Amino acid sequence: MKQVVQNYKSGELAVLDVPVPGCKPGGVLVRTAYSLISTGTELMKVSEAGMSMLGKARSRPDQVAKVMQSVATNGLPATYRKVMGKLDSYTPLGYSLCGVVEQVGAGVDDVKVGDLVACAGNEHALHAELNWVPKNLYTPVPDGLAPRHAAFGTVGSIALQGVRQGEPQLGEVALVIGLGLIGQLVVQLLAAAGVRVVGADPDPTRCALAERLGAVACGDPGSSALEGAVAELTGGHGVDQVYLAAGGGSNQPVELAAHLARDRGRVVDIGKCRLDLPWNAYYEKELDVRFSRSYGPGRYDPEYELDGRDYPIGYVRWTERRNLACFLDLLARGRVDVEPLVSHMAEFEDAVETYRRLKDGELKAVAVLFRYPGPTGEESEHAVEAPVVAVPAVRRGTGSTPARPVGAPVRLAFVGAGNYASSMLLPHLAQREGVTLSTVVTTTALSAANARRKFGFARATTDLDAVLGDPSVDAVFVVTRHSSHAELTRQALLAGKTVFVEKPLALTEDELAGVLAAVEESGNDRLQVGFNRRFAPLLREAKSRLGVRTGPASLRYLVNAGRLQHGSWYLRQGTEGTRFAGEGGHFIDTASWLLDADPVSVYAVASSGNEDLQVVLRYPDDSTATISYVTTGAPGFPKETLDLVADGKVLKLDDFVRASVHGPKRWVSSRLPKARDKGQSAELAAFVRAVRTGGPMPVPLESLVATTAATLAVQAALTGGAPVTLARPR
Questions:
Q1: Residues 243 and 166 sit within 8 Å (Cβ to Cβ)
Q2: How far, in Å, CA of 680 to CA of 693, rounded?
Q3: What whole-number distance in Å separates Cα of residue 664 and Cα of residue 660?
Q4: Which whole-number Å values give the CA distances from 331 to 170, 176, 215, 243, in the listed order?
Q5: Between vectors from CA 541 to CA 533 and to CA 706, what angle results, nearest 5°?
Q6: Is the peptide bond before 504 cis (omega within 30 degrees of 0)?
């Protein structure tokens, strides 16, 4: 994709080809339709970049102070290298845009692909074709609002927050000093709030524009006409509020504010102008000086902006995001009009030339919009390209795993010993003949000691390297939280260990690729993922009774997953992936095993919040499998029920307790109640046998990869709103 960047050392502006940002959890990937140039803030940055080093130092004394501190701490040579390296780098431009959601990250449920959103932030709403924007820095665009107008959302929020800081009241009089983009918006917002507004700016064109947009009177800051207008409107008392929306190095705005404000009036600094307060003037009137911090509460708070942690509305009524939504609502209802502020519309590919014209004064503008190629969001329909998820090829290197002594006990190490490992895996292994529980590794010493005591491990440690480097360990079980599975598996494979990893194998395509890269590098393909249901005795017998299929099948799988308890780590989608990403592989693997194939496409739809999912898998012979993964069902209903229909026969499974096959011959499992056996014992027996004998792994690696890719494709299908093709290497 293309992005506008600037080298702060040389001042060079360029439109570069850069990688497309990934769609991380907690945010959305947005294809820009329009982005706004702030002719104040951005041109100041562009102008600073064109200065000499001395000029840069004079314009940013705060940065000079940091440099001097670094010299004192780290020495001159190190500081010089650090400063030059930072200066001689490309930096982004832009902070206000409107675009179309192209991909939705995990944990986001308020927008979908194709929705129009306004975005904010000088790290996330850049002049670029695609931007990843976290949840609290975007908001949906109201119906009927033109995208080019919604692109004003961020600067509108800045103006709105400034007005809020002034606490205007109906019937008051306000003075807005500086009638650039922010000033023009402040004028309109104040007028909409029932405040009579006077504007001050040396540019008569901007004064005329402000009067057209709601100001009662405007004039040059030093003119007697301006002072007379204030006196007439206020009875000689002075204005109730002054909004400093000017920039530059002159102290005139601050002095004018003191001169025209009433006793105990309020002065709000929104722009970036010189603030040498004349002490006597401010003291005598006891003026209340306030600062408006950008878009509103949440700005510069990484937990709010990046982690998506909102402030409770009862404590913080107007946050960054609420300000953004409020301004868009005012636009949509016609209370604010930004169309007269659009001085120029430039094509995105002409960005460098547009900045040059603005900097040289050739282009006089209040606001300039970049229009991007492709759909602008003006159309009622947005074309969305059907997504594709690659099923990576399995390439085995030339290496091999070390041979183990024939007949020797299989020595196992566990990385992680949480609830699932302690209840569903270790009880089947602790008393198994020919198995030695060698070492347990946990992140805390006490949990390792507890696992050693309960299951008889020879050793407990918190040192993973001690296990991976131990030649006596034959196999490593990875039973940790989802986010660590892929990396721990990769390390164990490279160490030459046979690996059993609980589902999921990976949470992203990159993680899956990393595991397969370790297989190729080491030649070690001895891997099993904990897809245990295909080993369940009842299901295996039912499949055998069904017999070989000759035609396509239709499979329905209802998973009554239920709700999670508050505080469960499964709910941490930002780090641990969605709930289906963690558990869904079980059901996809079961369906694929029953249908004797790997899926070729995935389609998914979700209810609000992505809690209840309908996943449809298509197979090479036109068989289909529909997985209903729901959390809103009755707790007393069985968790897993399955029907498979093919060739005039029906296979039914009732939560691994009862099974039947209906056809020319009917088979029904025993009516005597049995404990649910979901296959863990048989799965572990097959794994241990493969380790002991060196025979094939219980499930081919290609199948594990295909199931993992299909699980990842569910999120892509939800994001894209269309079937996802599972592309296999040719």
A1: yes
A2: 20
A3: 13
A4: 21, 21, 18, 21
A5: 40
A6: yes
Distance between CA atoms of residues 281 and 656, nearest Å: 83
Measured in Å, how far apart are the chain's first and last C-alpha atoms?
Answer: 27
Q: How many degrees, rounded to 5, is the angle at CA 145 between CA 141 and CA 149?
A: 90
648-689 residue pLDDT tens: 999 999 999 999 999 999 999 987 656 789 999 999 999 999
Q: Cα–Cα distance between 151 and 482 in angstroms, integer? A: 38
Distances (CA, A) of 262 to 145, 228, 259, 588: 39, 14, 8, 72
Residue with tokens 């009638």: 179
- Cβ proximity of 146 and 166 under 8 Å: no
Residues 6+ apart with CB under 8 A from 41: 95, 272
CA-based Rg of the chain, rounded to a whole angstrom?
32
- Half-sphere exposure (CA, 13 Å, Cβ side) for 371? 14
Token code pair at residue 135: 């949840």
CA distance 104 to 714: 12
Name the token pair of 257: 């504010």
CA distance 507 to 325: 33
Q: Are the C-beta atoms of residues 247 and 178 closer than 8 Å to each other?
A: yes
Q: What is residue 88's three-state secondary structure?
A: coil
Note whether 505 and 529 are within 8 A (CB). Answer: yes
- Say which residue the tokens 């190190």 belong to: 78
Q: Which pTM does this prediction carry?
A: 0.53
Give 593-602 pLDDT, tens digit per residue: 999 999 999 9
Closest CA to 724 of 626, 620, 601: 601
Write out the two tokens for 57. 């130092």
Extract the tokens encoding 705. Answer: 């990869």
Residue 383 has pLDDT above 50, yes or no: no
pLDDT, one tens digit per residue, over 553-604 is 999 999 999 887 766 766 676 678 888 999 999 999 999 999 999 999 999 9
Task: Go through the domains of the chain in sequence order and give each one's CATH number.
Answer: 2-151+317-371 (3.90.180.10), 155-291 (3.40.50.720), 410-533+681-700 (3.40.50.720), 536-670+710-727 (3.30.360.10)
CB atoms within 10 A of CB 567: 8
Look at strands 196-200 and 173-177 and give their pairing.
parallel
